[in-house]
Amino acid sequence: xxxxxxEGRSVIVxxxxxxxxxxxxxxxxxxxxxxxxxxxxxKPGGNSIKASSGINGAPTRFQSQPPLDTxxxxxxxxxxxxxxxSSAPEQTRRKGLIKVLTDKSSSAIDFLADDIxxxxxxxxxxxxxxxxxxxxxxxxTPPGADIVTRLLKKLQNxxxxxxxxxxxxxxxxxxxxxxxxxxxxxxxxxxVRSGDEITSLAGPVxxxxxxxxxxxxxxxAKFRPDLAGIPSTxxxxxxxxxxxxxIGARLVDMDSVQIHPTxxxxxxxxxxxxxxxAAEMLRGEGGILLYNGKRFVNELGTxxxxxxxxMQLNPNLGPLKQxxxxxxLDPGACTAAGSHxxxxxxxxxxxRKKVSELDETTRDTVKNYSLAVAKHIPDVFGRSAFGHxxxxxxxxxxxxxxxxxxxxxxTHFTMGGVxxxxxxxxxxxxxxxxxxxVIPGLWAAGEITGGIHGDNRLGGSSLLECVVFGRIxxxxxxxxxxDDG
Length: 485
Prior knowledge:
Layout: E1 5-6, E2 10-14, H1 18-29, E3 34-39, E4 55-56, H2 72-80, H3 90-103, H4 105-116, E5 122-124, E6 134-136, H5 143-156, E7 161-165, E8 168-176, E9 185-194, E10 197-202, E11 205-207, H6 219-223, H7 241-245, E12 251-252, E13 257-264, H8 281-284, E14 288-290, H9 303-311, E15 316-317, E16 321-322, E17 325-329, H10 331-336, H11 338-346, E18 351-354, H12 360-374, E19 401-414, E20 417-419, E21 425-427, E22 438-444, E23 449-450, H13 461-483
Helix pairs in contact: 1-5, 1-13, 2-3
Domain FAD-dependent oxidoreductase 2 FAD-binding: 11-463
Family: Belongs to the FAD-dependent oxidoreductase 2 family. FRD/SDH subfamily.
Protein name: Fumarate reductase
Protein backbone atom coordinates (compact mmCIF):
# COMPACT_ATOMS: atom_id res chain seq x y z
CA UNK A 1 0.00 0.00 0.00
CA UNK A 2 1.46 3.41 -0.99
CA UNK A 3 0.73 6.78 0.51
CA UNK A 4 1.45 10.37 -0.39
CA UNK A 5 4.34 12.30 1.13
CA UNK A 6 3.70 13.03 4.77
CA GLU A 7 3.90 16.63 5.72
CA GLY A 8 6.78 17.29 8.08
CA ARG A 9 9.78 19.38 8.96
CA SER A 10 12.20 16.51 9.51
CA VAL A 11 15.74 15.82 8.50
CA ILE A 12 15.76 12.27 7.16
CA VAL A 13 18.87 10.20 7.88
CA UNK A 14 19.26 6.84 6.14
CA UNK A 15 21.54 4.43 7.97
CA UNK A 16 22.22 4.09 11.71
CA UNK A 17 25.98 3.55 11.72
CA UNK A 18 28.19 6.23 13.19
CA UNK A 19 27.86 8.52 10.15
CA UNK A 20 24.09 8.50 10.45
CA UNK A 21 24.15 9.00 14.21
CA UNK A 22 26.62 11.88 13.89
CA UNK A 23 24.43 13.48 11.23
CA UNK A 24 21.35 13.15 13.43
CA UNK A 25 23.20 14.68 16.36
CA UNK A 26 24.43 17.64 14.34
CA UNK A 27 20.99 18.25 12.84
CA UNK A 28 19.44 18.41 16.30
CA UNK A 29 22.21 20.70 17.52
CA UNK A 30 21.43 22.93 14.55
CA UNK A 31 17.84 23.21 15.79
CA UNK A 32 16.13 20.84 13.40
CA UNK A 33 12.58 20.41 14.62
CA UNK A 34 12.78 16.66 14.07
CA UNK A 35 15.14 13.96 12.86
CA UNK A 36 13.94 10.59 11.57
CA UNK A 37 16.64 7.93 11.33
CA UNK A 38 15.78 4.97 9.09
CA UNK A 39 17.63 1.64 9.43
CA UNK A 40 16.92 -1.41 7.27
CA UNK A 41 18.37 -3.85 9.81
CA UNK A 42 16.59 -4.95 12.95
CA LYS A 43 19.25 -3.41 15.19
CA PRO A 44 21.05 -0.06 14.81
CA GLY A 45 24.79 0.48 14.64
CA GLY A 46 25.78 -0.88 11.22
CA ASN A 47 29.39 -1.94 10.84
CA SER A 48 30.51 1.00 12.99
CA ILE A 49 29.49 -0.83 16.13
CA LYS A 50 32.08 -3.52 15.33
CA ALA A 51 35.00 -1.12 14.85
CA SER A 52 37.77 -2.16 17.17
CA SER A 53 40.99 -0.24 16.53
CA GLY A 54 39.88 3.27 17.41
CA ILE A 55 39.43 6.72 15.92
CA ASN A 56 42.13 9.03 14.61
CA GLY A 57 42.62 12.61 15.72
CA ALA A 58 45.46 15.13 15.61
CA PRO A 59 46.56 17.08 17.42
CA THR A 60 44.57 16.18 20.55
CA ARG A 61 45.02 16.63 24.26
CA PHE A 62 45.34 12.87 24.65
CA GLN A 63 48.49 12.64 22.55
CA SER A 64 51.92 13.04 24.11
CA GLN A 65 52.89 16.70 23.77
CA PRO A 66 55.08 18.26 22.54
CA PRO A 67 55.64 18.13 19.62
CA LEU A 68 52.26 18.64 18.02
CA ASP A 69 51.19 15.99 15.52
CA THR A 70 51.32 17.80 12.18
CA UNK A 71 51.67 14.85 9.79
CA UNK A 72 48.12 13.48 9.67
CA UNK A 73 47.30 15.24 6.39
CA UNK A 74 50.51 14.11 4.68
CA UNK A 75 50.12 10.54 5.97
CA UNK A 76 46.59 10.42 4.54
CA UNK A 77 47.65 11.85 1.19
CA UNK A 78 50.50 9.33 1.01
CA UNK A 79 48.15 6.48 1.85
CA UNK A 80 45.71 7.58 -0.88
CA UNK A 81 48.48 6.86 -3.38
CA UNK A 82 48.08 7.24 -7.12
CA UNK A 83 44.38 8.02 -6.85
CA UNK A 84 45.44 11.61 -6.23
CA UNK A 85 46.48 12.90 -9.66
CA SER A 86 49.08 15.56 -10.32
CA SER A 87 46.62 17.88 -12.06
CA ALA A 88 43.75 20.08 -10.91
CA PRO A 89 40.85 20.21 -10.32
CA GLU A 90 40.69 16.58 -9.16
CA GLN A 91 43.84 16.86 -7.06
CA THR A 92 42.47 20.01 -5.41
CA ARG A 93 39.12 18.36 -4.66
CA ARG A 94 40.59 15.17 -3.25
CA LYS A 95 43.07 17.03 -1.07
CA GLY A 96 40.29 19.37 0.00
CA LEU A 97 38.28 16.43 1.32
CA ILE A 98 41.34 15.06 3.12
CA LYS A 99 42.04 18.46 4.64
CA VAL A 100 38.50 18.63 6.03
CA LEU A 101 38.93 15.12 7.47
CA THR A 102 42.23 15.84 9.19
CA ASP A 103 41.63 19.48 10.17
CA LYS A 104 38.36 18.60 11.92
CA SER A 105 39.72 15.47 13.57
CA SER A 106 40.69 17.22 16.79
CA SER A 107 37.21 18.72 17.24
CA ALA A 108 35.69 15.31 16.46
CA ILE A 109 37.65 13.79 19.35
CA ASP A 110 36.60 16.66 21.64
CA PHE A 111 32.95 16.16 20.63
CA LEU A 112 33.01 12.45 21.47
CA ALA A 113 34.98 12.86 24.68
CA ASP A 114 33.35 16.00 26.09
CA ASP A 115 29.80 15.93 24.73
CA ILE A 116 29.15 12.21 24.45
CA UNK A 117 31.36 11.00 27.30
CA UNK A 118 33.49 8.50 25.38
CA UNK A 119 36.82 7.50 26.91
CA UNK A 120 39.51 8.09 24.25
CA UNK A 121 42.52 8.34 26.53
CA UNK A 122 44.54 5.41 25.10
CA UNK A 123 46.62 6.15 21.99
CA UNK A 124 48.16 3.63 19.59
CA UNK A 125 50.15 3.89 16.38
CA UNK A 126 48.67 1.92 13.52
CA UNK A 127 50.07 1.01 10.13
CA UNK A 128 50.77 3.89 7.76
CA UNK A 129 50.85 6.48 10.55
CA UNK A 130 53.96 8.48 11.38
CA UNK A 131 53.01 8.77 15.04
CA UNK A 132 50.48 7.40 17.51
CA UNK A 133 47.12 9.11 16.87
CA UNK A 134 44.47 6.38 17.03
CA UNK A 135 42.30 6.85 20.12
CA UNK A 136 40.38 4.26 22.10
CA UNK A 137 39.22 3.76 25.68
CA UNK A 138 40.93 2.02 28.57
CA UNK A 139 37.88 -0.12 29.39
CA UNK A 140 36.66 -3.43 28.01
CA THR A 141 34.19 -2.05 25.46
CA PRO A 142 35.65 -1.72 21.92
CA PRO A 143 35.66 1.87 20.63
CA GLY A 144 33.05 1.38 17.92
CA ALA A 145 30.51 -0.11 20.32
CA ASP A 146 31.27 2.48 22.99
CA ILE A 147 30.87 5.43 20.64
CA VAL A 148 27.74 4.13 18.92
CA THR A 149 25.89 3.08 22.08
CA ARG A 150 26.64 6.32 23.95
CA LEU A 151 25.72 8.54 21.01
CA LEU A 152 22.53 6.60 20.32
CA LYS A 153 21.52 6.80 23.97
CA LYS A 154 22.01 10.57 23.95
CA LEU A 155 19.94 10.90 20.78
CA GLN A 156 17.11 8.82 22.22
CA ASN A 157 16.89 11.22 25.15
CA UNK A 158 15.89 13.96 22.69
CA UNK A 159 12.15 14.02 21.97
CA UNK A 160 12.83 15.37 18.48
CA UNK A 161 14.65 12.16 17.49
CA UNK A 162 12.96 9.05 16.13
CA UNK A 163 14.69 5.79 15.21
CA UNK A 164 12.87 3.36 12.93
CA UNK A 165 14.47 -0.04 12.39
CA UNK A 166 13.37 -2.62 9.85
CA UNK A 167 12.67 0.23 7.43
CA UNK A 168 14.29 0.07 4.01
CA UNK A 169 14.46 3.12 1.77
CA UNK A 170 13.44 2.04 -1.73
CA UNK A 171 13.55 5.33 -3.60
CA UNK A 172 14.62 8.97 -3.33
CA UNK A 173 11.75 11.29 -4.17
CA UNK A 174 12.72 14.30 -6.24
CA UNK A 175 11.21 17.26 -8.01
CA UNK A 176 12.65 19.38 -10.81
CA UNK A 177 13.82 22.80 -9.66
CA UNK A 178 13.58 24.39 -13.11
CA UNK A 179 12.65 23.59 -16.70
CA UNK A 180 14.83 23.36 -19.79
CA UNK A 181 18.07 21.54 -20.59
CA UNK A 182 19.74 22.62 -17.33
CA UNK A 183 16.95 21.30 -15.10
CA UNK A 184 18.17 19.45 -12.03
CA UNK A 185 16.34 17.14 -9.62
CA UNK A 186 15.95 18.24 -6.01
CA UNK A 187 15.57 15.53 -3.39
CA UNK A 188 12.50 16.19 -1.27
CA UNK A 189 12.03 12.90 0.55
CA UNK A 190 12.17 9.11 0.48
CA UNK A 191 9.93 6.11 -0.04
CA VAL A 192 10.20 3.60 2.79
CA ARG A 193 9.17 -0.05 3.01
CA SER A 194 8.38 -1.57 6.39
CA GLY A 195 6.92 -5.05 6.10
CA ASP A 196 4.21 -4.86 3.44
CA GLU A 197 3.65 -1.12 3.87
CA ILE A 198 5.24 1.57 1.70
CA THR A 199 5.10 5.13 2.96
CA SER A 200 6.79 8.39 2.07
CA LEU A 201 8.60 10.94 4.20
CA ALA A 202 9.39 14.53 3.27
CA GLY A 203 12.54 16.43 4.10
CA PRO A 204 16.21 16.87 3.22
CA VAL A 205 18.05 13.55 3.14
CA UNK A 206 21.40 12.42 4.54
CA UNK A 207 22.50 9.08 3.10
CA UNK A 208 24.79 7.07 5.41
CA UNK A 209 24.17 3.46 4.44
CA UNK A 210 27.76 2.22 4.35
CA UNK A 211 29.82 0.43 1.73
CA UNK A 212 29.54 -2.78 -0.26
CA UNK A 213 32.33 -5.06 0.98
CA UNK A 214 29.71 -7.62 2.04
CA UNK A 215 27.74 -7.35 -1.22
CA UNK A 216 29.61 -10.33 -2.65
CA UNK A 217 27.28 -11.18 -5.53
CA UNK A 218 26.28 -7.59 -6.27
CA UNK A 219 28.46 -4.47 -6.36
CA UNK A 220 31.60 -6.31 -5.25
CA ALA A 221 31.21 -8.85 -8.04
CA LYS A 222 30.58 -6.03 -10.51
CA PHE A 223 33.56 -3.84 -9.62
CA ARG A 224 36.04 -6.38 -8.16
CA PRO A 225 35.27 -9.86 -9.47
CA ASP A 226 38.83 -10.87 -8.62
CA LEU A 227 37.92 -10.81 -4.93
CA ALA A 228 35.43 -13.63 -5.28
CA GLY A 229 35.91 -16.28 -2.61
CA ILE A 230 37.66 -14.06 -0.06
CA PRO A 231 35.83 -13.80 3.29
CA SER A 232 34.60 -10.50 4.71
CA THR A 233 34.13 -8.66 7.99
CA UNK A 234 30.88 -7.19 6.63
CA UNK A 235 27.37 -8.60 6.78
CA UNK A 236 26.16 -10.04 3.44
CA UNK A 237 24.02 -7.03 2.58
CA UNK A 238 23.42 -5.26 -0.76
CA UNK A 239 24.93 -1.83 -1.29
CA UNK A 240 22.44 1.01 -1.77
CA UNK A 241 24.44 3.09 -4.22
CA UNK A 242 21.92 2.52 -7.01
CA UNK A 243 19.33 4.67 -5.23
CA UNK A 244 21.72 7.62 -5.53
CA UNK A 245 22.83 6.97 -9.10
CA UNK A 246 19.19 6.74 -10.17
CA ILE A 247 18.86 10.49 -9.58
CA GLY A 248 22.19 11.36 -11.17
CA ALA A 249 24.83 10.89 -8.45
CA ARG A 250 28.31 10.07 -9.78
CA LEU A 251 30.49 7.28 -8.45
CA VAL A 252 34.26 7.30 -7.98
CA ASP A 253 36.94 4.73 -7.03
CA MET A 254 34.47 1.84 -7.00
CA ASP A 255 37.26 -0.64 -7.76
CA SER A 256 39.20 0.53 -4.71
CA VAL A 257 38.37 -2.09 -2.10
CA GLN A 258 40.38 -2.43 1.07
CA ILE A 259 41.51 -5.87 2.07
CA HIS A 260 42.16 -5.91 5.79
CA PRO A 261 45.15 -8.17 6.38
CA THR A 262 43.85 -9.78 9.56
CA UNK A 263 40.44 -11.34 9.96
CA UNK A 264 40.30 -14.16 12.50
CA UNK A 265 39.70 -17.70 11.26
CA UNK A 266 37.61 -19.45 13.90
CA UNK A 267 39.12 -22.92 14.44
CA UNK A 268 35.59 -24.28 14.99
CA UNK A 269 34.10 -22.59 11.91
CA UNK A 270 36.94 -22.23 9.45
CA UNK A 271 34.77 -21.91 6.33
CA UNK A 272 32.48 -19.14 7.62
CA UNK A 273 32.42 -16.27 5.11
CA UNK A 274 31.83 -13.70 7.87
CA UNK A 275 34.96 -13.12 9.96
CA UNK A 276 35.68 -11.22 13.17
CA UNK A 277 38.24 -8.51 12.60
CA ALA A 278 41.59 -9.01 14.29
CA ALA A 279 41.96 -5.36 15.21
CA GLU A 280 44.94 -3.51 13.81
CA MET A 281 45.73 -2.30 17.30
CA LEU A 282 46.88 -5.85 18.13
CA ARG A 283 49.82 -5.19 15.81
CA GLY A 284 50.06 -1.60 16.95
CA GLU A 285 50.56 -2.74 20.54
CA GLY A 286 53.35 -5.08 19.46
CA GLY A 287 51.84 -8.11 17.74
CA ILE A 288 53.74 -9.83 14.91
CA LEU A 289 52.64 -11.91 11.91
CA LEU A 290 54.18 -15.30 11.09
CA TYR A 291 54.02 -17.68 8.16
CA ASN A 292 55.42 -21.13 8.82
CA GLY A 293 56.88 -19.68 12.01
CA LYS A 294 58.74 -16.78 10.37
CA ARG A 295 58.06 -13.05 10.06
CA PHE A 296 57.69 -11.84 6.48
CA VAL A 297 56.49 -8.20 6.60
CA ASN A 298 56.56 -4.93 8.53
CA GLU A 299 53.38 -5.42 10.53
CA LEU A 300 52.87 -1.64 10.70
CA GLY A 301 52.88 -1.08 6.96
CA THR A 302 49.63 0.17 5.45
CA UNK A 303 46.78 -2.31 5.21
CA UNK A 304 47.38 -2.49 1.48
CA UNK A 305 51.06 -3.34 1.96
CA UNK A 306 50.50 -5.98 4.64
CA UNK A 307 47.60 -7.57 2.76
CA UNK A 308 49.67 -7.71 -0.43
CA UNK A 309 52.53 -9.42 1.41
CA UNK A 310 50.19 -12.08 2.80
CA MET A 311 48.47 -12.67 -0.53
CA GLN A 312 51.82 -13.40 -2.17
CA LEU A 313 51.98 -16.50 0.04
CA ASN A 314 50.30 -19.79 -0.82
CA PRO A 315 46.62 -19.80 0.21
CA ASN A 316 44.69 -22.68 1.74
CA LEU A 317 42.22 -23.49 -1.03
CA GLY A 318 38.77 -24.76 -0.08
CA PRO A 319 35.28 -23.27 -0.02
CA LEU A 320 36.99 -19.95 0.76
CA LYS A 321 40.27 -18.43 -0.34
CA GLN A 322 42.21 -18.07 2.92
CA UNK A 323 45.80 -17.79 4.09
CA UNK A 324 47.12 -19.49 7.22
CA UNK A 325 49.00 -16.69 8.95
CA UNK A 326 49.63 -16.64 12.69
CA UNK A 327 49.30 -13.52 14.80
CA UNK A 328 51.37 -13.60 17.99
CA LEU A 329 51.36 -11.17 20.91
CA ASP A 330 53.86 -11.29 23.74
CA PRO A 331 52.83 -10.62 27.39
CA GLY A 332 53.33 -6.86 27.07
CA ALA A 333 51.22 -6.62 23.92
CA CYS A 334 48.57 -8.90 25.46
CA THR A 335 48.29 -6.64 28.48
CA ALA A 336 48.20 -3.42 26.44
CA ALA A 337 45.40 -4.86 24.26
CA GLY A 338 43.79 -6.53 27.26
CA SER A 339 40.14 -5.71 26.58
CA HIS A 340 40.37 -6.93 22.99
CA UNK A 341 42.41 -10.00 23.91
CA UNK A 342 39.89 -11.05 26.56
CA UNK A 343 37.05 -10.85 24.03
CA UNK A 344 38.96 -12.76 21.37
CA UNK A 345 39.89 -15.45 23.91
CA UNK A 346 36.25 -15.73 24.94
CA UNK A 347 35.31 -16.21 21.28
CA UNK A 348 37.99 -18.89 20.90
CA UNK A 349 39.93 -16.83 18.36
CA UNK A 350 43.07 -16.36 20.47
CA UNK A 351 44.70 -18.90 22.76
CA ARG A 352 47.59 -18.73 25.21
CA LYS A 353 50.74 -20.80 25.04
CA LYS A 354 54.03 -20.74 26.85
CA VAL A 355 56.93 -19.78 24.62
CA SER A 356 58.41 -23.22 25.35
CA GLU A 357 55.29 -24.83 23.80
CA LEU A 358 55.79 -23.14 20.43
CA ASP A 359 57.44 -25.00 17.56
CA GLU A 360 61.19 -24.55 17.15
CA THR A 361 60.99 -22.15 14.18
CA THR A 362 58.50 -19.90 15.96
CA ARG A 363 60.56 -19.95 19.18
CA ASP A 364 63.65 -18.86 17.23
CA THR A 365 61.70 -16.06 15.51
CA VAL A 366 60.31 -14.77 18.80
CA LYS A 367 63.73 -14.94 20.44
CA ASN A 368 65.54 -13.11 17.65
CA TYR A 369 62.80 -10.48 17.36
CA SER A 370 62.80 -9.93 21.14
CA LEU A 371 66.56 -9.50 21.21
CA ALA A 372 66.35 -6.95 18.38
CA VAL A 373 63.63 -4.96 20.17
CA ALA A 374 65.45 -5.04 23.52
CA LYS A 375 68.79 -4.03 22.01
CA HIS A 376 67.29 -1.44 19.59
CA ILE A 377 68.65 -3.23 16.54
CA PRO A 378 67.10 -1.97 13.25
CA ASP A 379 64.33 -4.31 12.13
CA VAL A 380 65.03 -6.19 8.91
CA PHE A 381 61.51 -5.37 7.66
CA GLY A 382 61.73 -1.69 8.60
CA ARG A 383 59.43 -1.74 11.61
CA SER A 384 60.31 1.17 13.89
CA ALA A 385 57.57 1.06 16.56
CA PHE A 386 57.12 -2.02 18.71
CA GLY A 387 54.20 -1.08 20.93
CA HIS A 388 54.43 -2.71 24.35
CA UNK A 389 56.50 -5.77 23.41
CA UNK A 390 58.39 -6.80 26.57
CA UNK A 391 60.06 -10.15 25.86
CA UNK A 392 63.83 -9.63 25.81
CA UNK A 393 65.06 -12.88 24.29
CA UNK A 394 66.45 -14.46 27.45
CA UNK A 395 65.99 -17.95 28.84
CA UNK A 396 63.35 -16.64 31.24
CA UNK A 397 61.04 -15.95 28.30
CA UNK A 398 60.34 -19.67 27.83
CA UNK A 399 57.90 -19.83 30.76
CA UNK A 400 56.01 -16.71 29.74
CA UNK A 401 52.72 -16.88 27.86
CA UNK A 402 52.01 -15.48 24.42
CA UNK A 403 48.67 -15.15 22.62
CA UNK A 404 48.32 -16.77 19.20
CA UNK A 405 45.58 -16.98 16.57
CA UNK A 406 44.98 -17.73 12.89
CA UNK A 407 44.28 -14.76 10.62
CA UNK A 408 43.64 -14.21 6.91
CA UNK A 409 42.98 -11.24 4.61
CA UNK A 410 39.31 -10.22 4.37
CA THR A 411 37.33 -7.70 2.38
CA HIS A 412 36.74 -4.95 4.88
CA PHE A 413 36.12 -1.47 3.49
CA THR A 414 35.23 0.11 0.17
CA MET A 415 37.00 3.40 -0.56
CA GLY A 416 34.73 4.10 -3.53
CA GLY A 417 31.27 5.60 -3.44
CA VAL A 418 29.30 8.65 -4.44
CA UNK A 419 31.11 11.90 -5.16
CA UNK A 420 30.68 14.60 -2.51
CA UNK A 421 32.10 18.05 -1.89
CA UNK A 422 33.51 19.50 1.32
CA UNK A 423 29.97 20.27 2.53
CA UNK A 424 28.93 16.64 2.14
CA UNK A 425 26.63 17.47 -0.77
CA UNK A 426 26.16 14.65 -3.28
CA UNK A 427 27.32 15.63 -6.76
CA UNK A 428 26.07 14.81 -10.24
CA UNK A 429 29.54 15.73 -11.53
CA UNK A 430 32.87 13.93 -11.34
CA UNK A 431 35.89 14.97 -9.30
CA UNK A 432 37.73 15.98 -12.45
CA UNK A 433 34.89 18.17 -13.79
CA UNK A 434 35.60 21.90 -14.08
CA UNK A 435 32.37 22.83 -12.25
CA UNK A 436 30.47 21.10 -9.47
CA UNK A 437 26.90 20.02 -10.11
CA VAL A 438 25.15 19.62 -6.75
CA ILE A 439 22.04 17.50 -6.25
CA PRO A 440 20.00 19.77 -3.94
CA GLY A 441 18.45 18.27 -0.84
CA LEU A 442 20.88 15.33 -0.66
CA TRP A 443 24.00 14.78 1.48
CA ALA A 444 26.08 11.71 2.16
CA ALA A 445 28.63 10.67 4.78
CA GLY A 446 30.66 7.65 5.74
CA GLU A 447 31.53 4.63 3.63
CA ILE A 448 28.82 5.34 1.02
CA THR A 449 31.04 8.20 -0.23
CA GLY A 450 34.22 8.13 -2.30
CA GLY A 451 37.19 10.34 -3.07
CA ILE A 452 38.66 10.69 0.42
CA HIS A 453 40.79 7.59 0.94
CA GLY A 454 41.92 6.77 -2.59
CA ASP A 455 43.96 3.57 -2.79
CA ASN A 456 44.05 2.85 0.92
CA ARG A 457 42.23 3.99 4.06
CA LEU A 458 44.35 4.48 7.15
CA GLY A 459 43.26 2.44 10.14
CA GLY A 460 41.24 4.62 12.51
CA SER A 461 39.98 6.94 9.79
CA SER A 462 36.66 5.22 9.09
CA LEU A 463 35.12 6.22 12.43
CA LEU A 464 36.67 9.64 12.00
CA GLU A 465 35.17 10.07 8.53
CA CYS A 466 31.78 9.14 9.94
CA VAL A 467 31.98 11.76 12.68
CA VAL A 468 33.48 14.59 10.61
CA PHE A 469 31.36 14.32 7.47
CA GLY A 470 28.30 13.05 9.34
CA ARG A 471 28.27 16.21 11.46
CA ILE A 472 28.82 18.40 8.41
CA UNK A 473 25.99 16.70 6.50
CA UNK A 474 23.57 16.87 9.42
CA UNK A 475 24.27 20.54 10.01
CA UNK A 476 23.86 21.33 6.32
CA UNK A 477 20.58 19.41 6.05
CA UNK A 478 19.18 21.18 9.11
CA UNK A 479 20.13 24.54 7.58
CA UNK A 480 17.99 23.71 4.55
CA UNK A 481 14.96 23.37 6.78
CA UNK A 482 15.73 26.84 8.10
CA ASP A 483 16.39 28.22 4.62
CA ASP A 484 13.12 26.78 3.32
CA GLY A 485 11.24 28.60 6.04
